[in-house]
Description:
Elements: E1 23-36, E2 39-52, E3 56-60, H1 67-75, E4 81-84, E5 87-90, E6 93-94, H2 103-106, E7 111-114, H3 118-121, H4 128-153, H5 159-177, H6 179-192, H7 198-201, H8 211-224, E8 229-233, H9 241-258, E9 261-266, H10 269-273, E10 278-283, E11 286-292, H11 293-298, H12 303-310, H13 349-353, E12 359-360, E13 366-367, H14 383-403
Helix pairs in contact: 4-5, 4-6, 4-8, 8-9, 12-14
Residues 34, 36, 41, 43, 61, 63-69, 331 line the site of adenosine-5'-diphosphate.
Amino acid sequence: MFDKSLKLSNYEIDKKYELQKGNILDVRNLKVSFKNKLGYVQAVRGIDICLRKGEIIGLVGESGSGKSVSVKSILGFNEGSTTTADCLNLNGINILTIEKNQWQFIRGTKVGYIPQDPLMALDPTKKIKNQIIDAIKITQKRKLNNKIFDIQRNTSIKDEEKFQQINEAKAEYKKNMIKDNVHMRMMEILSFIGINNPEEAIEAYPHEFSGGMRQRIVIAMTIIGEPDVIIADEPTTALDVTIQAKVIDLIKKLRDTMGISIIFISHNIALVANLCDYLYIMYAGKIVEKGTIEDIFLRPKHPYTWALITSIPDENSDDELVSIPGTPPNMISPPKGDAFAARNKYARKIDFEKQPPLFQVSQTHFAATWLLHPDAPKQEIPSEVKNKIKIAKKSILLKKEKQNGK
Ligand SMILES: Nc1ncnc2c1ncn2[C@@H]1O[C@H](COP(=O)(O)OP(=O)(O)O)[C@@H](O)[C@H]1O
Ligand SMILES: [Mg+2]
């Protein structure tokens, strides 16, 4: 059963690609482009992201800013792209060297994916029960294969001991695969994600569920594989507001009870505030600002972050996000300066001419704007942003403090 062609030997990685201490994912200088008739679409232009163990980070930006393409590099979903990076290390695995037939070892067990449209992740022709059972069985098999691989690779034990450990692993696998045990595991997971009537629910097909319920099922399927990292790509965009909040609470629970590290993508900066520990603000394929929730909401520095905060709808309003005036640049020939300059009323000459570096504001806070240059004239946070910050302080940050038990 253990297919030798799927050996993971090239997971061994070079020192320069090593993870920083405490991290589970290190992305350094990631660039992704796609060739089309007109040239190369430079979707991601040299970004750094690090995810610590047990942390939830948010990746925020308007549609088209490169959020999905960035995370798809970690999932091996960017077929046809040119992808380069100085480091793309997922819990010790060098993603840059993964071959096609090895992705089955990575997706699901190392990194789980929750897409925007849950139907994309579910098979419409199969009952929920069969999809979950299949996922549990595949996971058990993968776990066994990984365990055998680890035992085989272990140079500190003798062959007889390896033989015995492999037999024990196979016995445990057989036990876990018994019908009743698989069923028990299924019920355990369904109860975790908050399905009230699991025995009835599993007999249904995906189309018989509401959007929120479908997304819960996708989350269930994702956690079956016990991944180290989960990437949730706008998982609540298709849901209405009250359901959104419940799905977000569930995603938070994955971290709080299972210790899974999470990347949560959203075009809505208000949505991530109660969930994330750290935010990356993305525009035109670059990270323009990064910091803790407090850094970003109380002391935002980049005019693009100001624009995102201004676009938060007023409290108690059912309005969608207000869109930011202007349009993002053409990514085949992105601007040579700050890509946001053309939409930025605070832009100066240099913003159109030269790419700003990522200035350090504090130990946790960085922003790529010339406004932070020591010689730049002082620019106050605009009053409309300040007003939104006041509201954010009340509704978002206080709630977060409560959650943190402060
Ligand atoms: N497969 C692809 N081929 C060509 N261009 C692509 C492909 N996928 C994404 N892009 C382009 O890359 C840019 C970033 O897309 P994406 O990461 O999906 O944005 P976001 O998730 O932030 O809305 C967009 O300009 C998009 O058109
Ligand atoms: Mg996207």
